[in-house]
Write a structure and sequence with these properties.
Order of helices and strands: EEEHHHHHEEHEEEEEEEEEEHHEE
Shape: globular
Number of strands: 17
Structural class: alpha+beta
Number of helices: 8
Largest sheet: 8 strands, antiparallel
Helix content: 25-40%
Length: 333
C-alpha cells in the first residue's frame, strides 16, 4: 500500500555513508528501501540493528494516515464512519492546525477534494476542471472549521475529507527518530522521500551535511545538481517544489501544488522552498505552504515562528532564478 501514489521526487539529496550490516563491531548502521511510493535512507549509531523497528513505525503511520488505503483510519474518517482518531492522527492534526494558522490558510489538509479533482490525489481527477467543478470542491475546503472533540474529528461540513500527505512524510521521519532515541540512539539521520529528521553528529563527529538540489526540470529522470550544502543537526528539514511534479494537459502544464484558497494550481514565482524547523513534520508542512505564497509572505511566516528558517528559489522573468532566504538560514557552501 502507498501513502502517496504520485510522490514528489527527491528535492533534497543526502550524502550517505551507510555501513554494511555485516561489518563486525561497527555501531554505525544503515537502512534503506521503498515505502509510501518513495524511498527512505536512514543512518544511525546503535548497538543493534533496528531495521525491523523502523519498518514497524512506518507501517503504523501508514495504517493511520494513508488516504490511499481504504482500511486506514483516516480513510474511515473521510467516509464518515464513527471512529476515534488515534494518537498519530491527533498529533498530525495539531501540527497541521498550527501551520494552517501560521500560513493564514496556505496550508490546509482539507484541500484533498481539490487535489483529487486536479489529478494529484488519491482519487481519479479530470484533465482540465471547469470553473463549476472547481467552485464545487472549494465549498469543501476549510480546515479552520474542523476540530477534535472527545477523540473524534468533527468536520465543518459534510463531505469534507482530509489528506495529510503534505505533513505525513515529515511526521514519519520524526516518529522513526523517536523510536531510535528510545533505543538509546542519539546520532541519526532519517530521510523519507526528501524529508529529513536529524540528531547528534555524523560519523565524523560533525553536524550532518545536507545537499539541496538546484531546480532543474527533467522530463525523463530525476537529476540531482548541487545548489548548496548546509550543516545542521537537532532539527527537521524539508524541500517542496513544483518543477518535477506536474502534468501536461490540453490546457498546458499543470503543477501539483494546489492553492487551498483558490482550489487551483498555485501560481507563484517560487520554484522550490527548503525549510529547517524544530521537527520534520513542521518543516514539511511549512515547505508546502511556501509553494502557494509569494516570497515576501513566506519569509514573513518564517520570522513569525521560532526555530523556522527558509530558503526559496524564485524564478525570474528572464528564465533564470535567484535564491532568497531568511536572515538566520545556515551558511551555505
Amino acid at each position: 500500500m502507498q501513502l502517496y501514489d504520485r510522490s514528489v521526487c527527491l528535492l533534497v539529496s543526502v550524502t550517505l555513508m551507510l555501513s554494511a550490516a555485516s561489518c563486525s563491531g561497527s555501531k554505525w548502521r544503515g537502512a534503506e528501501g521503498v515505502v509510501w511510493g518513495t524511498t527512505y535512507h536512514i543512518t544511525y549509531k546503535a548497538d543493534a540493528d533496528l531495521h525491523d523497528s523502523i519498518i514497524s513505525v512506518m507501517r503504523a503511520v501508514e495504517h493511520s494516515l494513508s488516504p490511499f488505503s481504504g482500511q486506514s483510519l483516516i480513510s474511515r474518517i473521510n467516509r464518515g464512519e464513527d471512529v476515534e482518531a488515534d494518537t498519530l492522527i491527533e498529533a498530525v492534526f495539531r501540527g497541521a492546525a498550527q501551520v494552517y494558522g501560521l500560513s493564514s490558510g496556505a496550508f490546509d489538509p482539507t484541500v484533498a477534494p481539490a487535489v483529487n479533482l486536479w489529478g494529484f490525489g488519491y482519487k481519479n481527477g479530470v484533465e482540465c476542471p471547469t470553473d463549476e467543478q472547481t467552485d464545487s470542491v472549494r465549498a469543501l475546503v476549510g480546515f479552520g472549521s474542523c476540530f477534535i472533540d472527545n477523540g473524534r474529528i468533527v468536520k465543518g461540513r459534510a463531505g469534507m475529507e482530509f489528506d495529510f500527505s503534505a505533513i505525513t512524510k515529515g511526521f514519519g521521519c520524526d516518529m522513526v527518530g523517536k523510536m531510535l532515541e528510545r533505543n538509546g540512539c542519539s546520532d541519526y539521520m532519517v530521510e523519507i522521500g526528501g524529508e529529513i529528521a536529524l540528531s547528534g553528529a555524523n560519523r565524523n563527529g560533525e553536524p550532518w551535511h545536507i545537499m539541496i538540489d538546484a531546480p532543474l526540470e527533467c522530463d525523463t529522470a530525476v537529476v540531482h545538481d548541487r545548489l548548496a550544502v548546509v550543516e545542521v543537526t537537532g532539527c527537521g528539514i524539508a524541500t517542496s517544489g513544483n518543477y518535477r511534479n506536474y502534468r501536461n494537459t490540453a490546457g498546458g502544464k499543470v503543477w501539483h501544488t494546489i492553492d487551498p484558497r483558490t482550489c487551483r494550481p498555485a501560481e507563484t514565482a517560487t520554484l522550490s522552498a527548503t525549510v529547517i524547523a524544530p521537527d520534520a513534520m513542521t518543516a514539511d508542512a511549512i515547505a508546502t505552504a511556501c509553494m502557494v505564497m509569494d516570497a515576501d509572505s513566506a519569509l514573513a511566516m518564517a520570522e513569525a515562528r521560532d526555530g523556522v528558517m527558509i530558503m526559496l528559489v524564485v524564478g525570474r522573468d528572464d528564465g533564470g532564478w535567484s535564491v532568497v532566504s531568511s536572515k538566520d538560514f545556515p551558511q551555505m557552501r
